[in-house]
DNA sequence: GTAGGGTTAG
């Protein structure tokens, strides 16, 4: 068997068994001595994720060239064995082999998958040292790595410096902004098309995802039209992304339409739809959907259960939630992890069953994280249980002493209880630890335009009218006998605390924006960024009562529909 | 032989 014939056979291998046969023949007739053959064998093993076969072949090789090394580095990255990927790359450097433009993207991909920015920067130095930053694939991988490590501006700088951008790099950059800022990803999508790039399906999925993250319904409809007009078929990934987009933009009906149109559906599509009902407080429908899914012989996974439990929690379906939680391991072989416990703490906590929630936390054997304690703290806040709030808060600060958000939340809880000395203590602690809360920001869609703003913002051309309207609104609220919590809090606090508390005004601003240009009968739609400090719920309820307008608030992926002072989403606060 | 896509907990 000659080398050429051997390579031809490898090209036609359909499984690991076939590759092993070719490998055995190559050993018998000595073709394995040909490095081209050995490399091709290694590569084929790696393609089939047969990394242990690749390893034993690699270990037995007496000669290796740069390609041999790159295939191994890539093979480890492909199967997610990042430690071996790093180790092999270090070996490359140690042996004095010059890393090439094939090897580097693999190592950079490993850094990306581990979100290992530190290692990513080290590799970037290696890239520069060897002058490989001009290589298209290397630089595209670096952009992606920086983006996924959440240092988007670094990714952007690199992206802007690239000589030739292609569809892939544009897509990476659009996706990068989808995770952090907001409208920039859609701006980039427009710019990409202006520069003559025709988006493919992967690019469209990325844009759909960006609309979902932004909750931008106007853009969502546009993107949907674009997809239809350009004849993109609704495969399982694009379809699922669109379900999620419509759900997060506030229309569970449109999400369901997409779901019904999809020919192929898998556990991810079903879970996305269950989550969609959950955000919207439609717990019963989420449960019905879960049963439909089981009837279609689709096996639920961890995420399905997170979505389902969240749906129960959000709709106050306590019995059902407990039943699903208890059945997940016994009936569906899905072991509860910290996320499922967090849902349960939220479910029990909101219902006032704080002791039960605490017992659950104490009994759990999986590692506790800050979001679990945040759920507990949130429940304590609703029910005014200071004793348990302190316990939750201490665990929270122990886990994340550097997170300014926790200090702010805590001082707000103490402020509400009138414990000003403790408020001051936490403020001092923040100052001493040099922690500063990043101001929150909010956005809103009015008449198909999007406005983004933060506290004290005067960038809007109608800013003067908005502030006037805001004052009228506050006066109306006062006259109607409503005193927003924040104003009560502001009475006796120090200047610095007052400043922090004023973040909540962004919510008032959102409402003021909403009052301009929305036709009668149309709901006022507010998307609220997760990081905005404060609670928009009380305020929205009051405004909807006074203005006799319905309001939809999106708050951390939950939707709250208010009408005449009542929150109809089923959530109870 | 190298790069980009979907679901989840406060």
Automatic annotation (TrEMBL):
Biological process, per Gene Ontology: chloroplast RNA processing
Ranges occupied by PPR repeats: 65-99, 166-199, 235-269, 301-336, 337-371
InterPro entries: DYW_dom (IPR032867), E2_motif (IPR046849), E_motif (IPR046848), PPR_At4g14850-like_plant (IPR046960), PPR_rpt (IPR002885), TPR-like_helical_dom_sf (IPR011990)
Entry-linked Pfam families: DYW_deaminase (PF14432), E_motif (PF20431), Eplus_motif (PF20430), PPR (PF01535), PPR_1 (PF12854), PPR_2 (PF13041)
Domain of life per record: Eukaryota
Keyword Repeat: yes
Keyword Repeat: yes
Family of this protein: Belongs to the PPR family. PCMP-H subfamily.
Protein name as it appears in the record: DYW domain-containing protein
Species of origin: Flemingia macrophylla
């Amino acid at each position: 068997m000659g080398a050429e014939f051997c390579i031809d056979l490898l090209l036609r291998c359909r499984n690991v068994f076939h590759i092993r046969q070719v490998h055995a023949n190559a050993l018998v007739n000595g073709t394995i001595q040909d490095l081209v053959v050995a490399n091709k064998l290694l590569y084929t093993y790696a393609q089939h994720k047969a990394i242990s076969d690749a390893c034993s072949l690699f270990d037995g090789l007496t000669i290796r060239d740069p390609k041999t090394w790159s295939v191994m580095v890539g093979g480890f990255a492909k199967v997610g064995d990042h430690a071996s990927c790093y180790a092999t790359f270090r070996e490359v450097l140690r042996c004095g082999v010059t890393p090439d433009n094939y090897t580097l993207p693999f190592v950079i991909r490993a850094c990306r998958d581990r979100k290992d920015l530190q290692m990513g920067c080290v590799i970037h130095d290696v890239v520069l040292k060897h002058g490989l930053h001009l290589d298209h694939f290397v630089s595209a991988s670096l952009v992606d790595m920086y983006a996924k490590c959440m240092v988007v501006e670094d990714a952007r700088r690199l992206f802007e410096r690239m000589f030739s951008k292609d569809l892939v790099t544009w897509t990476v950059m659009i996706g990068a902004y989808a995770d952090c800022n907001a409208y920039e990803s859609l701006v980039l999508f427009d710019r990409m098309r202006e520069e003559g790039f025709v988006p493919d399906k992967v690019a469209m999925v990325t844009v759909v995802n960006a609309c979902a993250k932004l909750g931008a319904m106007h853009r969502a409809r546009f993107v949907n039209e674009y997809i239809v007009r350009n004849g993109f078929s609704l495969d399982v990934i694009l379809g699922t992304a669109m379900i999620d987009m419509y759900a997060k933009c506030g229309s569970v009906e449109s999400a369901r339409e997409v779901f019904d149109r999809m020919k192929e559906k898998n556990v991810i599509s079903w879970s996305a739809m269950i989550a969609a009902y959950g955000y919207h407080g439609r717990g019963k429908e989420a449960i019905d959907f879960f049963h439909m899914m089981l009837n279609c012989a689709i096996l639920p996974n961890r995420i399905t259960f997170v979505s389902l439990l969240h749906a129960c929690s959000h709709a106050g379906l306590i019995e059902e939630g407990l039943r699903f939680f208890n059945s997940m391991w016994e009936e569906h072989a899905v072991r509860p992890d910290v996320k499922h416990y967090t849902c349960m703490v939220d479910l029990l906590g909101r219902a006032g069953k704080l002791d039960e929630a605490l017992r659950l936390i104490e009994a759990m054997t999986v590692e506790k994280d800050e979001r679990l304690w945040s759920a507990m703290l949130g429940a304590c806040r609703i029910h005014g249980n200071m004793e348990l709030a302190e316990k939750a808060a201490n665990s929270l600060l122990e886990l994340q002493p550097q997170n300014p958000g926790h200090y702010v939340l805590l001082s707000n809880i103490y402020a509400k209880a009138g414990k000003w000395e403790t408020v001051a203590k936490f403020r001092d602690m923040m100052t001493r630890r040099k922690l500063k809360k990043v101001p929150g920001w909010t956005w809103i869609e009015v008449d198909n335009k999007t406005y983004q703003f933060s506290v004290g913002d005067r960038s809007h051309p109608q800013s003067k009218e908005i502030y006037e309207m805001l004052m009228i609104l506050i006066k109306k609220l006062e006259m109607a006998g409503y005193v927003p919590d924040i104003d009560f809090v502001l009475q006796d606090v120090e200047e610095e605390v007052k400043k922090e508390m004023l973040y909540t005004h962004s919510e008032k601003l959102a409402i003021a924006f909403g009052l301009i240009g929305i036709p009668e009968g149309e709901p006022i739609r507010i998307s609220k960024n997760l990081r905005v400090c404060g609670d928009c719920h009380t305020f929205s309820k009051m405004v909807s009562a006074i203005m006799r307008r319905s309001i939809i608030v999106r708050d951390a992926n939950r939707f709250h529909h208010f009408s005449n002072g009542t929150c109809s989403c089923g959530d109870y606060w």
